[in-house]
Amino acid sequence: MAISKEQKQEVVAKYCEWANRSKAVILTEYKGVTNEQLDDLRRRVREVGGEFHIVKNTLASLAFQRARHAFAQGFFEGSTAVGFAFAMQPPW
User: Fold this and answer.
1) Which of 32, 70, 38, 68 is nearest to 55 (CA)?
2) Of residues 44, 58, 77, the one with CA closest to residue 3
3) Alpha-carbon torsion 65, 49, 39, 25, what sign?
4) Spatial CB neighbours of 5, under 8 Å, sequence gap ≥ 6
5) In terms of Cα–Cα distance, which of 2, 61, 47, 67 is closest to 82?
6) What is the pLDDT of residues 40-80, one digit of tens each?
7) Is the pLDDT assigned to residue 91 strictly greater than 60?
8) How far, in Å, CA of 20 to CA of 66, rounded?
9) How far apart are CA 84 and CA 55, in angstroms?
10) What b/e readout covers 29-49, taking b as 16+ CB neighbours within 10 angstroms?
11) Rounded to an integer, what distance in angstroms lies between the CA atom of residue 55 and that of residue 42?
C-alpha cells in the first residue's frame, strides 16, 4: 500500500531527527531474518536506548542527506535496515 506525500515527509523528518540525535548509525541488510527475530532485535535495541527500523531506501537516503550525513553510493540498495544508537551506555 502506497503512503501519501505527507506521510513520506513525516518519515523523512523522523529519520533526519534520529540521524542528528544518534551517537552511531548502523546500516544492515536484513535478508533471511524472520519477523520474530526482527521484533526481538527491535526490543533489545530499544532496551538500551536506540531504534532499529526497516527503511524505504529512497526516504532514508533523503533523510540522511538532509541531516548532512553522507553515505557512499550503494548503501541504500536492497533490503536495508537502520539502527540508531541514542544512548551509548552498556545494558548492565
Assistant:
1) 38
2) 58
3) positive
4) none
5) 61
6) 999 999 998 899 999 999 999 999 999 998 777 788 899 99
7) no
8) 10
9) 12
10) eeeeeeeeeeeebbeebeeee
11) 13
Q: What is the pTM of this model?
A: 0.80
* Residue matched to cell numbers 557512499: 72
Cell numbers standing for residue 82 = 537502520
d(CA 11, CA 59): 7
Average confidence score pLDDT of the chain: 89
Q: What is the dihedral of CA 53, 74, 59, 69, to 10 degrees?
A: 90
Residue 2 DSSP class: -
Enclosing H/E stretch for 42:
helix 35-47
Residue 7 has pLDDT above 90, yes or no: yes
Taking 60 as the threshold, does the pLDDT of residue 27 lie above it?
yes
